[in-house]
Amino acid sequence: MATGLHDSAVGQLDLFSGAGIAPPEPEIGSMDWAPLDPARLSDAELIAVLPRARQNESAGLAQEAARRGLPDAVPALETLCRRFAGFGLDREVTEQAAALRGLATLGGSAAAAAVTRLIVSGSVRGPGARVALGAAAELGCRLPPDRVAVFLRDDDLGVREAACRCARGGAEVITALIELLADLHASVTHAAALALGTLGRGEGRTVLTRLLRTAPSAEVVGALAGIAEDDDWVRLGQTAMRMPELAPVVLEVLEQSEAPRAAAVAEGVRRRLGTDG
To answer: pTM for the complete prediction?
Structure first.
Protein backbone atom coordinates (compact mmCIF):
# COMPACT_ATOMS: atom_id res chain seq x y z
CA MET A 1 0.00 0.00 0.00
CA ALA A 2 3.01 2.29 -0.53
CA THR A 3 3.28 3.02 3.19
CA GLY A 4 6.99 3.60 2.77
CA LEU A 5 6.29 6.61 0.62
CA HIS A 6 3.90 7.93 3.24
CA ASP A 7 6.41 7.41 6.04
CA SER A 8 8.99 9.31 4.03
CA ALA A 9 6.63 12.23 3.56
CA VAL A 10 5.87 12.39 7.28
CA GLY A 11 9.54 12.31 8.13
CA GLN A 12 10.25 15.23 5.84
CA LEU A 13 7.66 17.33 7.66
CA ASP A 14 9.57 16.97 10.92
CA LEU A 15 12.46 18.91 9.39
CA PHE A 16 10.19 21.93 9.07
CA SER A 17 8.43 21.76 12.42
CA GLY A 18 7.90 25.27 13.71
CA ALA A 19 4.95 27.58 14.15
CA GLY A 20 4.10 29.66 11.14
CA ILE A 21 6.19 27.74 8.62
CA ALA A 22 4.34 26.52 5.56
CA PRO A 23 4.40 22.81 4.74
CA PRO A 24 7.31 22.00 2.45
CA GLU A 25 6.62 22.00 -1.25
CA PRO A 26 6.70 18.53 -2.78
CA GLU A 27 9.87 17.67 -4.68
CA ILE A 28 9.70 17.76 -8.45
CA GLY A 29 8.03 14.61 -9.65
CA SER A 30 6.74 13.57 -6.22
CA MET A 31 3.16 14.31 -7.22
CA ASP A 32 3.53 11.99 -10.21
CA TRP A 33 2.81 9.01 -7.96
CA ALA A 34 -0.67 7.80 -8.68
CA PRO A 35 -2.93 8.42 -5.67
CA LEU A 36 -4.49 5.45 -3.96
CA ASP A 37 -7.87 4.46 -5.34
CA PRO A 38 -10.22 4.82 -2.34
CA ALA A 39 -12.86 2.59 -3.89
CA ARG A 40 -10.45 -0.35 -4.01
CA LEU A 41 -9.56 -0.18 -0.31
CA SER A 42 -11.35 -2.14 2.37
CA ASP A 43 -12.76 -0.19 5.31
CA ALA A 44 -9.80 -1.22 7.47
CA GLU A 45 -7.26 -0.27 4.79
CA LEU A 46 -8.93 3.07 4.21
CA ILE A 47 -8.86 3.93 7.91
CA ALA A 48 -5.25 2.77 8.22
CA VAL A 49 -3.95 4.93 5.38
CA LEU A 50 -5.90 8.11 6.21
CA PRO A 51 -3.52 9.49 8.88
CA ARG A 52 -0.64 9.51 6.37
CA ALA A 53 -2.58 10.49 3.27
CA ARG A 54 -0.59 12.44 0.69
CA GLN A 55 -1.72 15.81 -0.58
CA ASN A 56 -3.01 14.50 -3.90
CA GLU A 57 -5.10 11.75 -2.30
CA SER A 58 -6.27 13.18 1.01
CA ALA A 59 -9.52 14.62 -0.34
CA GLY A 60 -10.50 11.40 -2.11
CA LEU A 61 -9.72 9.23 0.90
CA ALA A 62 -11.58 11.51 3.33
CA GLN A 63 -14.59 11.74 1.04
CA GLU A 64 -14.71 7.98 0.67
CA ALA A 65 -14.60 7.45 4.44
CA ALA A 66 -17.47 9.92 4.80
CA ARG A 67 -19.42 8.34 1.95
CA ARG A 68 -19.17 4.94 3.62
CA GLY A 69 -20.21 6.49 6.94
CA LEU A 70 -17.28 4.98 8.85
CA PRO A 71 -17.37 6.19 12.48
CA ASP A 72 -14.00 4.52 13.09
CA ALA A 73 -12.50 6.97 10.57
CA VAL A 74 -12.96 9.89 12.99
CA PRO A 75 -9.69 9.32 14.92
CA ALA A 76 -7.83 8.79 11.63
CA LEU A 77 -9.15 12.05 10.18
CA GLU A 78 -8.30 13.91 13.37
CA THR A 79 -4.77 12.49 13.25
CA LEU A 80 -4.41 13.55 9.61
CA CYS A 81 -5.39 17.09 10.56
CA ARG A 82 -3.05 17.20 13.57
CA ARG A 83 -0.18 16.02 11.40
CA PHE A 84 0.02 19.54 10.02
CA ALA A 85 -0.51 21.43 13.28
CA GLY A 86 1.55 24.62 13.23
CA PHE A 87 1.41 24.99 9.47
CA GLY A 88 -0.96 27.04 7.34
CA LEU A 89 -0.55 30.59 8.58
CA ASP A 90 -0.56 31.94 5.05
CA ARG A 91 -2.50 29.34 3.08
CA GLU A 92 -4.95 26.54 3.61
CA VAL A 93 -3.37 23.12 4.13
CA THR A 94 -4.97 20.70 1.69
CA GLU A 95 -4.77 17.70 4.01
CA GLN A 96 -6.29 19.55 6.95
CA ALA A 97 -9.15 20.88 4.82
CA ALA A 98 -9.85 17.38 3.52
CA ALA A 99 -9.89 15.94 7.04
CA LEU A 100 -12.20 18.65 8.36
CA ARG A 101 -14.63 18.34 5.48
CA GLY A 102 -14.63 14.59 5.93
CA LEU A 103 -15.49 14.99 9.61
CA ALA A 104 -18.27 17.44 8.82
CA THR A 105 -19.77 15.05 6.27
CA LEU A 106 -19.50 12.06 8.61
CA GLY A 107 -21.38 13.94 11.31
CA GLY A 108 -22.20 12.66 14.78
CA SER A 109 -20.98 13.47 18.27
CA ALA A 110 -17.55 11.89 17.78
CA ALA A 111 -16.85 14.03 14.73
CA ALA A 112 -18.10 17.14 16.54
CA ALA A 113 -15.84 16.40 19.49
CA ALA A 114 -12.86 15.90 17.15
CA VAL A 115 -13.41 19.21 15.38
CA THR A 116 -13.82 20.97 18.72
CA ARG A 117 -10.51 19.53 19.94
CA LEU A 118 -8.73 20.56 16.76
CA ILE A 119 -9.97 24.14 17.05
CA VAL A 120 -9.40 24.53 20.79
CA SER A 121 -5.88 23.10 20.56
CA GLY A 122 -4.94 25.52 17.79
CA SER A 123 -4.12 22.71 15.38
CA VAL A 124 -5.70 24.63 12.49
CA ARG A 125 -4.45 28.13 11.81
CA GLY A 126 -4.72 30.92 9.28
CA PRO A 127 -7.09 30.46 6.31
CA GLY A 128 -7.67 26.85 7.35
CA ALA A 129 -9.65 28.14 10.32
CA ARG A 130 -12.44 29.02 7.88
CA VAL A 131 -12.87 25.34 7.04
CA ALA A 132 -12.58 24.32 10.69
CA LEU A 133 -15.22 26.81 11.82
CA GLY A 134 -17.46 25.87 8.92
CA ALA A 135 -17.24 22.24 10.00
CA ALA A 136 -17.92 23.25 13.60
CA ALA A 137 -21.04 25.18 12.58
CA GLU A 138 -22.29 22.28 10.48
CA LEU A 139 -21.70 19.82 13.32
CA GLY A 140 -23.22 22.09 15.96
CA CYS A 141 -20.02 22.22 18.00
CA ARG A 142 -20.19 24.25 21.19
CA LEU A 143 -16.86 26.03 21.13
CA PRO A 144 -15.58 27.94 24.17
CA PRO A 145 -16.85 31.53 23.92
CA ASP A 146 -13.38 32.99 24.41
CA ARG A 147 -12.11 31.07 21.38
CA VAL A 148 -15.08 32.17 19.26
CA ALA A 149 -14.50 35.79 20.30
CA VAL A 150 -10.88 35.59 19.12
CA PHE A 151 -11.99 34.29 15.72
CA LEU A 152 -14.64 37.02 15.48
CA ARG A 153 -11.80 39.58 15.61
CA ASP A 154 -9.52 37.74 13.18
CA ASP A 155 -7.89 39.71 10.36
CA ASP A 156 -9.29 37.25 7.80
CA LEU A 157 -12.84 38.22 6.85
CA GLY A 158 -13.63 34.58 5.98
CA VAL A 159 -12.69 33.53 9.50
CA ARG A 160 -14.82 36.29 11.03
CA GLU A 161 -17.79 35.29 8.90
CA ALA A 162 -17.43 31.59 9.75
CA ALA A 163 -17.02 32.37 13.45
CA CYS A 164 -20.41 34.14 13.45
CA ARG A 165 -22.02 30.80 12.59
CA CYS A 166 -20.40 29.28 15.68
CA ALA A 167 -21.60 31.95 18.11
CA ARG A 168 -23.59 30.40 20.96
CA GLY A 169 -23.61 33.30 23.40
CA GLY A 170 -21.35 34.75 26.05
CA ALA A 171 -20.75 38.43 26.85
CA GLU A 172 -17.49 38.68 24.91
CA VAL A 173 -19.04 36.99 21.88
CA ILE A 174 -22.06 39.31 21.93
CA THR A 175 -19.78 42.34 22.14
CA ALA A 176 -17.72 41.15 19.20
CA LEU A 177 -20.83 40.41 17.11
CA ILE A 178 -22.17 43.91 17.74
CA GLU A 179 -18.82 45.35 16.67
CA LEU A 180 -19.02 43.35 13.44
CA LEU A 181 -22.25 45.13 12.47
CA ALA A 182 -19.91 47.94 11.44
CA ASP A 183 -17.54 45.64 9.54
CA LEU A 184 -16.41 46.90 6.13
CA HIS A 185 -17.45 43.64 4.49
CA ALA A 186 -21.17 43.05 3.93
CA SER A 187 -20.88 39.26 4.24
CA VAL A 188 -19.48 39.64 7.75
CA THR A 189 -22.12 42.21 8.74
CA HIS A 190 -24.86 39.89 7.49
CA ALA A 191 -23.42 36.91 9.36
CA ALA A 192 -23.17 38.94 12.57
CA ALA A 193 -26.78 40.12 12.29
CA LEU A 194 -27.98 36.56 11.69
CA ALA A 195 -26.06 35.34 14.74
CA LEU A 196 -27.40 38.13 16.96
CA GLY A 197 -30.98 37.52 15.84
CA THR A 198 -30.65 33.79 16.45
CA LEU A 199 -29.40 34.60 19.95
CA GLY A 200 -32.42 36.84 20.56
CA ARG A 201 -30.47 40.07 20.31
CA GLY A 202 -32.01 42.97 18.42
CA GLU A 203 -28.90 44.96 17.55
CA GLY A 204 -28.84 43.58 14.01
CA ARG A 205 -32.56 44.04 13.32
CA THR A 206 -32.03 46.76 10.70
CA VAL A 207 -29.64 44.54 8.78
CA LEU A 208 -32.06 41.61 8.97
CA THR A 209 -35.05 43.61 7.70
CA ARG A 210 -32.92 44.79 4.79
CA LEU A 211 -31.87 41.23 4.04
CA LEU A 212 -35.49 40.10 4.17
CA ARG A 213 -36.18 42.56 1.38
CA THR A 214 -33.04 42.08 -0.74
CA ALA A 215 -31.88 38.50 -0.04
CA PRO A 216 -34.63 36.59 1.78
CA SER A 217 -33.86 33.09 3.01
CA ALA A 218 -35.06 30.64 5.62
CA GLU A 219 -32.09 31.65 7.79
CA VAL A 220 -33.04 35.32 7.62
CA VAL A 221 -36.67 34.51 8.40
CA GLY A 222 -35.68 32.49 11.46
CA ALA A 223 -33.26 35.10 12.79
CA LEU A 224 -35.72 37.97 12.38
CA ALA A 225 -38.55 35.98 13.95
CA GLY A 226 -36.48 35.67 17.12
CA ILE A 227 -36.50 39.45 17.63
CA ALA A 228 -39.55 40.53 15.60
CA GLU A 229 -41.61 43.57 16.42
CA ASP A 230 -45.15 44.12 15.10
CA ASP A 231 -44.00 45.59 11.79
CA ASP A 232 -41.61 42.68 11.27
CA TRP A 233 -44.44 40.14 11.36
CA VAL A 234 -46.10 42.09 8.58
CA ARG A 235 -42.84 42.12 6.61
CA LEU A 236 -42.56 38.36 7.06
CA GLY A 237 -46.11 37.89 5.81
CA GLN A 238 -45.36 40.05 2.77
CA THR A 239 -42.31 37.92 2.08
CA ALA A 240 -44.46 34.79 2.09
CA MET A 241 -46.76 36.40 -0.48
CA ARG A 242 -43.85 37.52 -2.63
CA MET A 243 -41.89 34.26 -2.37
CA PRO A 244 -44.22 31.26 -1.99
CA GLU A 245 -41.23 28.94 -1.60
CA LEU A 246 -40.58 30.60 1.75
CA ALA A 247 -44.22 30.54 2.83
CA PRO A 248 -43.95 27.27 4.82
CA VAL A 249 -41.01 28.64 6.82
CA VAL A 250 -42.75 31.96 7.42
CA LEU A 251 -45.98 30.26 8.49
CA GLU A 252 -44.06 28.07 10.92
CA VAL A 253 -42.44 31.01 12.72
CA LEU A 254 -45.69 32.96 12.69
CA GLU A 255 -47.61 30.08 14.24
CA GLN A 256 -44.94 29.43 16.85
CA SER A 257 -45.01 33.02 18.04
CA GLU A 258 -47.29 34.13 20.84
CA ALA A 259 -47.52 37.66 19.43
CA PRO A 260 -51.11 38.62 18.49
CA ARG A 261 -49.90 40.35 15.31
CA ALA A 262 -48.10 37.16 14.23
CA ALA A 263 -51.30 35.12 14.56
CA ALA A 264 -53.27 37.66 12.52
CA VAL A 265 -50.60 37.72 9.79
CA ALA A 266 -50.50 33.90 9.69
CA GLU A 267 -54.26 33.79 9.13
CA GLY A 268 -53.96 36.31 6.32
CA VAL A 269 -51.13 34.38 4.67
CA ARG A 270 -53.08 31.11 4.76
CA ARG A 271 -56.14 32.80 3.32
CA ARG A 272 -54.23 34.49 0.52
CA LEU A 273 -52.34 31.32 -0.38
CA GLY A 274 -55.44 29.17 -0.11
CA THR A 275 -53.89 26.80 2.43
CA ASP A 276 -55.67 25.02 5.25
CA GLY A 277 -55.23 26.31 8.78
So the answer is: 0.82
